Amino acid sequence: MAALAVLTLLTAACGGPSPSPTQSATTAGRYPWHTGIVSTTFWVGEIFDPNAADGSQVMSTYDSQWMQSYGGCDGVVTNGCKTEARTQAKGFAPTSMTPKENPFYLDLPYDDINDPTAFAERASVIPWANDPGFAGNAQNRSFSYMKNQWVRIRMGNRECYGQIEDAGPGQYHDKDYVFGSNDARPANKKFNGAGMDVSPALNGCLGFSELDGESDKVDWQFVPRDQVPAGPWLKVVTVSQVK
């Protein structure tokens, strides 16, 4: 995508006055804001701890062949799969491959498929579980209420959008933080208390200070698909379910 086109899309997405993260869910949207949340960066194909059960992003909690589904390493292959800086001029896309799924992805600490606590309570905890297209799947282990859901993320004067494609960091049924309306802090204590991981595309779009750090903080809220504005995050939209 040409630089001018991307700039136009981002301007359209961020143009005009934005509702404050302190506004109520009623005035700012259906779902409440979560503010000042530490976010780290992860990417498809990353292996950050080969000895940990959740230390590889070759697979995700929702896709046992995530790297294959995505189309390869979401970065550069140099002694493994490494991250890279993303630029607006290239739509924040990876430079060495063409993603088959949305490069604007993230995780939140609620695994509604593999975590037994989350699976047991998900139909009563996840706000959209009884909406059309979701209702009736409470016992369906091939269907995730979380996978592919959209999230609005802000850092400073930047606003970007992404889809949930994994669970974490560090916790997997943190319902008070993920779905609560009182801006609770994440239960996770690892990685500087991070409550979200974002992809390299979101890292670049939001203007994180580091490619792979633990100091950037964001505000976020769930957002229905029909409220996602035009932007590079809609160039490829992930629709696949649990694999």
Quick gist of this model?
The chain is α+β, with helices and mostly antiparallel strands and 243 residues long.
Write the layout of secondary structure elements.
Layout: H1 3-14, H2 25-28, E1 34-41, H3 66-70, E2 76-77, E3 81-82, E4 105-108, H4 116-125, E5 150-155, E6 158-167, H5 175-179, E7 196-198, H6 200-206, E8 217-222
Parallel strand pairs: 1-7, 4-6
Antiparallel strand pairs: 1-8, 2-3, 4-7, 5-6, 5-8
Task: Explain this structure.
The protein has about 240 residues and is an alpha+beta fold. It is built from 6 helices and 8 strands; from the N terminus they run ααβαβββαββαβαβ. The strands form 2 sheets. The chain has a 6-stranded mixed barrel with strand order 1-7-4-6-5-8. A hairpin with a 2-residue loop joins strand 5 and strand 6. The radius of gyration is 17 Å and the shape is globular. The two termini are about 30 Å apart. Mean pLDDT is about 90; it is low at about 1-30.
- Mean pLDDT metric: 88
Order of helices and strands: HHEHEEEHEEHEHE
> What is the 3D form?
globular
User: How much is the radius of gyration in Å?
Assistant: 17 Å
Low-pLDDT stretches are 1-28
Q: Distance between the terminal alpha carbons, to the nearest Å?
A: 30 Å
**How many extended strands?**
8
- The strands making up the biggest β-sheet line up spatially as 1-7-4-6-5-8
**Beta strand %:** 15-25%
Main sheet record: 6 strands, mixed, barrel
Structural class: alpha+beta
Number of helices: 6
Oligomer: single chain
Helix content: 10-25%
